[in-house]
Amino acid sequence: MIRILRKIHWFYSILVIFIFSLLFYPVYYLFSSNERYYNLLNSSRQLHSRICSLFMGVFYRFEYEVKLNRGQNYVFCANHSSNLDIMILCILGRGRFHFLGKEELLNNPVLKLFFRTIDVPVNRDSKMSSFKAFKKVGENLDNGMSLIIFPEGKIDEYHYPPILQPFKNGPFRLAIEKNVPIVAVSLQDVWKKMWDDGSKHGTRPGLCHVYIHKPLATAEFKIEDSDMLKDRIFAMINTKISE
Question: What is the CA radius of gyration of the chain?
């Protein structure tokens, strides 16, 4: 019975996302047309995320270790086990932020508006693509934009419940190079509401707990310390999702 209810909620959630994506599409198209509107573009997808979550019956409790500085840009690093993670980080990011994501997202009719403009796509199997992507991300960081990234690289489809997978090294080297603080984000139980896209185990409403760790300054690190920094952020995130 529970499995049937979760499947029904999944179909309903897909319908909610589809309807509001259609409604927001003209807004996204307009605000993605010029860099002057990028803050409005981010505000729109934050509102979109809040509305979809509300209609799906999914709510978020953000617990901050310390209050974040609104005038500071950050590199937000979070674990990734659900499509809800993107909504959560849109709500958390606020204002001037952008995502680094897989190149396949360019095939999505809505998401491609972002990944052709404010966000940065990357083909991790191509060294040239990775070089160009991180060059662009570095320019965005220099311009005061925060970066949102899931350093695992993708949702692990082989482990349910999810297990934190090894991190890619790129964002940590970049954070050190640009001297931008890293904020580790532990998405603690989001997968219980929706794992991956929800198609396999269904979805359910409820409260998701999100722990935002104290920003970690990168000024003390050198480029050759990127592995050490990566392991430190990994341990921070894993400690909270393992509770």
Answer: 17
